[in-house]
């Protein structure tokens, strides 16, 4: 696995777990209080929460998230993920199409 830019604070981890010309899958691991900072992607993505709880911000909306929730996000829309719990939050981010 390759560790890529986390775009976060306080040690947030993002690991590329799959890389293909038509898409990527990234594993995001956030410890309590960590945030994957607000950013955009040049392609459509979805975030699938594997474990934990937190707050997702997509565009102007914010929502509580937990394991087994899927959040779609269109290309160019700002998004962020914050762990607001006392446990680890793990999410799979899938980039659709080439970037």
**What's the arrangement of strands in the largest beta sheet?**
1-3-4-11-6-9
Round the mean pLDDT to the nearest integer and report it: 88
Structural class call reads mainly beta
Task: Estimate the strand proportion.
Answer: over 45%
Multimeric state: single chain
Instruction: Give the termini distance in whole angstroms.
Output: 19 Å
Please describe the structure with a list of short key phrases separated by commas or semicolons:
99 residues; 0% helix; globular; mainly beta; five-stranded antiparallel sheet; six-stranded antiparallel sheet; 11 strands
Describe the structure.
With 99 residues, this protein is an all-beta fold. It has a domain at 1-21 and 28-54. 0% of the residues lie in helices and 61% in strands. It is built from no helices and 11 strands. It has strands spanning 2-3, 8-9, 13-20, 23-30, 35-39, 45-51, 53-58, 61-66, 70-73, 79-82, 89-96. The strands form 2 sheets. The protein has a 6-stranded antiparallel sheet, with no helix packed on it. 23% of the residues are buried. Residues 1-10 have low confidence and may be disordered.
């Amino acid at each position: 696995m390759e560790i890529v830019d986390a775009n976060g604070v306080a040690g947030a981890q993002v690991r590329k777990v799959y890389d293909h010309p038509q898409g990527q899958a990234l594993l995001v691991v956030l410890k309590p209080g960590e945030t994957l900072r607000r950013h955009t992607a040049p392609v459509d993505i979805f975030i699938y929460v594997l474990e934990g709880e937190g707050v997702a911000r997509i565009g102007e909306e914010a929502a509580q998230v937990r394991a087994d929730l899927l959040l779609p996000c269109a290309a160019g829309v700002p998004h962020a993920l914050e762990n607001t719990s006392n446990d680890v939050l793990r999410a799979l981010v899938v980039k659709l199409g080439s970037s």
